[in-house]
Structure formats: structure tokens, C-alpha cells
Amino acid sequence: MSLTTMTTLHNGVQMPWVGLGVYKMEEGSGEVKDAVLSALDVGYRSIDTASFYENEEGVGAALAETSIPREELFVTTKVWNDEQGYQETLDAFERSMDKLGLDYLDLYLIHWPVPGKYKESWRALEKLYQDGKVKAIGVSNFMEHHLDDLLLEANITPMVNQVEFHPQLNLPTLRQYCQNKHIQLEAWSPLARGNYFEDETIQELAATYNKTPAQIILRWDYQHHVVTIPKSTKKHRQQENADIFDFALTTEEMARLDNLNENKRLGPHPDEFDYDA
């Protein structure tokens, strides 16, 4: 088990269980390029960016420099809220592809469920998928009711739903919903920015397994069958975040971590997001 360990999406495409997230990594300083290159050197093959992050060009520069074959990489980007709509999404995709320097994408996501727009955006993603420009399509920050609404008219069920997910927000009903629909759940901010590394339960489990709090949380994600994309610009942290495949939490320990749930979000609730901002 390693960074090349994969989940199989409902269309047969394979996606690494652990990838690198690049939110808030800067492009101009070379930070994002260096972080992606170091992650690839560690063994990461999945990179997650978005047009909103304004660092797709830096990710693309790293991908152009690496000697790793394209077919071994799994690249995700997302269409932002002010780019949504049918033609708007198709245009946004082309802008992203130009910046990334790629001729196909592995996963394209709708970043947030913009009211009145996300169904048209999904229609555009279906076209990109059917045209072979994207290997898999999905959504981000969609709750059950958004997915129910989307599926009323969708021809293709999303392969992935990327949401905020960590022990203080473990979304049991959404997890079950996505499992029932064969939608792969993916966690953004899986470490909750380190906000509760000092939690007594997490500290105790870290001591038991001689692991860090981050490794305990990422292992918990993996055992819940949730893909995860921790962000780190430092190579030793990237290595640490990847080192979760040599131990397993017991059923009781998983339950103890589940019990940390407080429905506590770092980001906005999708129904309370300011879509007009």
C-alpha cells in the first residue's frame, strides 16, 4: 500500500487515495511549482488545483518539467462560481487547460453549487466527458439535496464529490448517500488546518501507533473510504502525510474519532455561501 494505491470510480477510472492539494500556494514565487515537484518526487501522482486558486500555470510548469509519464498522473481542477453556466463552463475549461498545458484532464469539478447555474454547468461537464477531454467529472461542496436536484436531469452521475471533511465534520448521512450512489467522497481541508491536533483522543492514538496527529486523521479518512488531498509545501510533511499505509485503526478507535464530530466547519456551509460576492 502506497501513494499509488487507488480507488476505482464508478466509470472504471482509477484515482489515488491520497493526493496533494495546492490551495493558497502562490504561483509567482514558484511555491506551487516547487511543492508539486517535491510531491511528485516523494511519490504523489494526484494533484488538485482550481481556477479560483490562480496557480494552475505553476502546476502546469511542474507537470511540464517532470519526467513522470502523463498517464501516471491524476490532475484535478475546478470551475469557479463566476465561470458557471453551459458555454461559460466550456470556456473556463479551455482556459484551465491552457494554463495547465494539458491535452486532457483526469477530473473536472464544479467548485460550488451556484443556485440556478450548476445544472447548466453539469451539462457542460457531461459534454467534456463525452468528448473525451476529461476522464472523470464530479462536483464539490454538494450536499444531498443539491445532488438530488442535479440527478433529476443529469445523464451521468458525478464520479466524485469533494467536500470539507475531518473528524469534527464527518458527514455520516452524506457519506452514506454518496456510497449508495457510487459517488466517491473526497476531503478538502482533511486536517482542519491543524486546529485539533492537540485533541486528547488524537494525541493518544498518535502515541499508540507512533504516528503524528495528521497521520492518524488521514488514516481515519482512508478507512472511511474517503479520498484525501492534504496541502503541504514542505517535502518532509508531504512524506509524513503519505506514510499512512503501514498501520490500521481498530473499529473502536474509528468510533472514538467519529465521536469527535461537532458538525463544525472551517469554510461556509454550501447553503450559506455568498454566491453574489
UniProtKB/TrEMBL annotation:
Residues spanning the membrane: none
NADP-dependent oxidoreductase domain segment(s): 31-262
Gene3D superfamilies given in the database record: NADP-dependent oxidoreductase domain
PROSITE patterns: ALDOKETO_REDUCTASE_1, ALDOKETO_REDUCTASE_2, ALDOKETO_REDUCTASE_3
Pfam families hit by this protein: Aldo_ket_red
Name of this protein: Aldo/keto reductase
UniProt xrefs under PANTHER family: 2,5-DIKETO-D-GLUCONIC ACID REDUCTASE
Source domain of life: Bacteria
